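Hi, here's the filled form for the chain we discussed.

Project: internal
Contact: R.S.
Residues: 474
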Amino acid sequence: MSSWILISGGTVIDGTGSPAVPDCAVLVRDDTIEAVGAGASTDSIPRGEEVVRIDATGKTVMPGLIDAHCHTSFGEARMQEEQDLYTSHELRTLRSAWNVTKVLRSGVTGISDPGGSYFIGVGMREGIAEGLVQGPRMTTAGRFLSTSNGIADWYPTSVGVPDSSIGKVVNTADEMVTEVRHQVKNGVDLIKIGDSPLGDYEAFSRDEVKAMSDAAHRLNKRITMHARGSNNVDSAVAGELDWIMHGNALRDDTIERLAESKIPLCPVLLLLGNLGELGGAVGVPQGLRDAYMRLTEATAESLHKAREAGVTLIVGSDTGFAVTPYGEWHARELELLMRYAGMTALEAIKAATSDCAIVLGEGNDVGALAAGKGADIIIVDGDPLADIRVLQQKERIETVILRGEVQTFDDEVLAQRRPYDRAQHICPSEITYDVVYNGGPETQPDPRDFDSNGDRELLDELDDLAATAAQESS
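And the returned structure, exactly as it came back:
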């Protein structure tokens, strides 16, 4: 006997970009949508089979959100050392399992994990599929592939890149292809290339990117890349990657090639937006907040031009850092795409559902409310077309249906945080004689203030990227 769910009376947003349909029913059979609108009634349910009825009158029924950039094993790190060095392999896995339930609770029913420590992502994916862990549908990469100049080689050469870090250093084409094969053997769905952190140079040659892409595709796996600069995106397009992350500073000719390639771009604005707009609430220095805002605003021109050229934008949040904790801000990426890429609410929802389904692979036919699609559905107490921010309020996500099953959560329990072990700070600043006896701390630099400490390197790099983005978009 089949299991049935009939959702009636709600306004349906189907995720394809079509207008919302009021007072529309959705019928689910087992893990598949049986009908939407006409035909979605108890008439098609065989006599004697039970049906769960959900009255969605006054509410919105839509596909579950998909997050193309959710790092399940980053542990809400506040600094790089926490992300790479602290917390055992075993405990990282258990805490990651806790955190993916928060993601599902927020209305995100599908995620792609573009890199993390060990093969924890593979374990999470399998644990979710087997029902051991409550979490969204999932695809995953392994550790980032990085050169000594890429995003994942942070520490001095004397320290190196520990096995517990999020990156694997590969400095020759042979090493790159060997690591692709190694990761595929260990169960990844996709390969993540980590180019230069801010996109101001190329950590991989174009031939190296193509070699990794060819190796992944020969093994029937997908591949993506952290690519902030125009040259980085050009290499990703030439390498025929499956989707591209970021794209902050894009020349017009790069946008043209990206549009012709039909490769989706995942801007991932949330990390920058949260640091710039919300960081003051937790003490992020004003100078750094301003720099992130300048970069975000400079990126807007590239995104507007990309959309006008026909580039498909998909939604990714970079969840996993302390600034983007699990289950908190996934849907805010839709708000930022509306603000900085000029999307309507309907277009932003499409970017987070049917367009974003590409990252879940061919075996996950989801992202839209249509007959034959996988039954990943959320029911929202409110109208996201009137105010997209309603999707950020977990209490307004009244029902989450994953694979045709209504999910239950203990919100009081999930309110607890499970970060990785924190770095061990002995003292936030220097206790000098002058601080104690000659004027006190008010005459000393604020240890949280990048400007007063003279640590301008990061600020200068962010400003350089923002200036490049503005110049190349003009």
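Let me know if anything looks off before we file it.
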